[in-house]
Design a protein that fits this description.
about 160 residues, mainly beta, Immunoglobulin-like, 3-stranded mixed beta sheet, about 5% helix
Amino acid sequence: MKIPLLIASLLFFGAALPGSRTLQAATNPGQNDKTEAGCTLRIHVDGLRNSTGVVGAVIFTSPEGWPENTDKSLHHWPTEIPQGKHEATATWENLPPGDYGIAVIHDENRNRKLDRNFIGIPKEGFGFANNPHVGLSAPPFDAAKVHVACPDTEIAIHLQYK
């Protein structure tokens, strides 16, 4: 599988609220029952080439659907990028402790998909937890898996642009 095909579906999430830096509502109906524990996950995303658009993040609990099938994800949501900044922090509260695979993209034009050129190379940024090497396909789930513990877990993801 090629990166654009895998990551293109990562942004099938709800629209960002004006002025909001972090959205904490799951867009998958029926998913809220999975978020009643007390851990907070902060995903610091850097390497954005501009402050246009939003950062989209998706969290998976297993390799099933990783990373393209957001119907199989625990959560997916957009986070506003502060004006003039080249970084953003996505925060998810009340996440159960455990292991999660995490992917993010920079949706510069807010069209809820990873734009790519005529041969399929991404035109927008993408990244994964643990910042694994990305070749012609997305890294395996285990390479982008992090352990979330209470009360807080913070990770950093550096975006790549091809």
